[in-house]
Amino acid sequence: MRMFLVLASFAAIIGAATPAHADPSGNPDADFLAALDRSGVPYKNAAVAIRVGKKACQLMDQGHSEADVIQSVSSENAGFTVSDATKFTTSAVSVYCPQHIGEPTTEPPPPSSNTWVGPEFPWPAPPAA
Asked: 10, 52, 68, 75: which has the highest count of C-beta atoms within 10 A?
């Protein structure tokens, strides 16, 4: 009986909780722009930012990874750093496509032009037994 009460209490708490990605204003576009502002992501045109945010979710819906979308947002917006593109994409996902929250993602590694790769040396064959 005690276990039933604990489980019932837990279910009631979970049922009453508001999801983190809930739309408090009823206007997802305004929420997205507010998320960009909170994250410090620069944008010049709100309509373009909204369109790009929704496009990021369309790409993820098509099976592109968040890292691929971040790279795309970064390369298509000259003023964006990879960090800006990451914050932008994360904001878009949290507002427009929360079903993708929690999918494996990391910032794509920055391109490196001076990475040294050592030569490959052939290893001798192991001795015959």
From this structure: 52
